[in-house]
Write a structure and sequence with these properties.
By secondary structure, the chain is α/β, with parallel strands linked by helices. The protein has two domains: 194 residues, HUPs (Rossmann fold, 3-Layer(aba) Sandwich), CATH 3.40.50; 126 residues, TPP-binding domain (Rossmann fold, 3-Layer(aba) Sandwich), CATH 3.40.50.1220. Helix content is 26%, strand content 25%. It contains nine helices and 17 strands. A seven-stranded parallel β-sheet has the order 7-11-6-1-4-5-12, with helices on both faces. It has a five-stranded parallel β-sheet with strand order 14-13-15-16-17. The chain has a three-stranded antiparallel β-sheet with strand order 8-9-10. α5 links the parallel β13 and β14. It is globular. The N and C termini lie far apart (68 Å). The chain binds flavin-adenine dinucleotide (FAD). Flavin-adenine dinucleotide binds next to α6, α7, β16 and α9.
């Protein structure tokens, strides 16, 4: 493998039912930064699907300079084999230096298969990506390679943070969790170069037949889209007592979320869990109420703009990441806060 042949930062632009997934736009935002640090001009989005060319302009508005489109009926719904074949073929043809994939259900299936077929490494579930020297500390025993993709992710159950590089193979591949990277502000009217590529699809016994797609009807709020989250932990005490958090969320027009302890206790569904094994959120305002601030929880919310913690233990680690902290019993503080907010809003109207 001649590493010099591999150039440019590519992202897999996931779409489902001809709608771009938010992660595709988030990856474009990060790809722009990486491309700048590599003195690369272009960010390329790889768009796979059937009848998907209408999505190109949106990718351009969010930072794609070029979109490679593989448009084929075989790619209508996600299936492992044709998608793997398509993305592998794009890599073999266009030789990206870096390829980012969303750590979604689709990306987690697709990414490792593709990396295996093109014989490179993949770092899963990254929380930070940057360009730098590897090894991080110069060592006489090892040649320092410059401008490598440094991929950081929690390891050993979130107890440590590992930075991983792939200096000897290309592309350098990473999956990134939704909600971690930031989209750029869309550039209205931006256009991308469009390259149509079709590797040809031959049905074989690895092509699964989709008989029926049954969509889960979710009645649960999308906590990743919420601007205000009122998050409760084990300290809330019971499923019933979440009523005081519901009231606060309602007063603020926010959404209730929770820690894993709450999900494990059966008080709230998993879709509302924030953290390493839950969702990564970045609201404008995050209340952490009766949440101790374990590293696995903090990993999912520390990028919130403002964090307010309410906890009876003044030494709780959540106060280390909070912008504002209130030490005391949540059963007294939360209803009092809700009442003041309601009164303040009423006097304004
Ligand atoms: C591999 C792995 C992945 C994990 N992933 C996640 C994840 O995605 N998300 C996550 O949240 N956790 C995750 N965890 C679990 C995590 O380590 C913690 O156990 C969990 O976050 C604790 O939840 P908690 O803060 O609600 O409960 P606790 O740690 O029990 O904290 C409860 C807090 O409430 C306070 N409190 C109690 N009563 C009151 C009161 N009346 N008024 C005010 N404060 C009060 C207490 O002082 C305490 O600080 C993971 C763990 C592992 C090993």
């Amino acid at each position: 493998m001649s590493l010099e042949e591999y150039k440019g930062v590519f992202i897999f632009a996931q779409q489902v039912d001809n709608e771009l997934s938010s992660i595709a736009l988030e990856l474009l935002g990060k790809a722009k930064d990486l491309a700048n640090d590599l003195d690369e001009k272009k960010v390329t989005a790889v768009l796979l699907g059937s009848d998907v060319k209408g999505l190109v302009d949106k990718l351009a508005e969010y930072g794609a300079d070029r979109v490679i489109v593989v448009d084929d009926p075989a790619l209508k719904d996600y299936r492992t084999e044709p998608y793997t074949h398509a993305l592998t073929s794009v890599i073999n043809e266009y030789k990206p230096e870096i390829l980012l994939v969303g750590a979604t259900a689709i990306g987690r299936d697709l990414g490792p298969r593709v990396s295996s077929r093109v014989h490179t490494g993949l770092t899963a579930d990254c929380t930070s990506l940057e360009i730098g020297d590897f090894p991080l500390e110069p060592s006489p025993a090892r040649e320092t390679k410059h401008k490598q993709l440094l991929m950081t992710r929690p390891a050993f159950g979130g107890n440590t943070i590992a930075t991983i590089a792939c200096p000897d193979f290309r592309p350098q591949m990473a999956t990134v969790r939704p909600g971690v990277m930031q989209k750029i502000d869309p550039i209205k009217g931006a256009k991308a170069e469009v390259v149509e590529f079709n590797p040809g699809f031959e049905e074989n016994n690895c092509y699964t037949e989709i008989v029926k797609i049954v969509k889960e009807a979710s009645s649960v709020a999308d906590i990743q889209a919420a601007k205000i989250l009122v998050s409760g932990g084990r300290g809330v005490g019971s499923a019933e007592n979440f009523k005081i958090l519901d009231d606060l969320a309602e007063a603020l027009n926010g959404t209730v979320s929770c820690s894993r302890a709450v999900v494990d206790s059966g008080w709230k569904p998993k879709d509302l869990q924030v953290g390493q094994t839950g969702k990564t959120v970045r609201p404008q305002l995050y209340f952490a109420i009766g949440i101790s601030g374990a590293i696995q929880h903090v990993a999912g919310m520390e990028e919130s703009d403002i964090i307010i913690a309410i906890n009876k233990d003044e030494n709780a680690p959540i106060f280390d990441v909070a912008d504002y902290g209130v030490v005391g019993d949540l059963n007294k503080i939360v209803p009092a806060l809700t009442k003041s907010i309601k009164e303040a809003l009423a006097s304004k109207n």
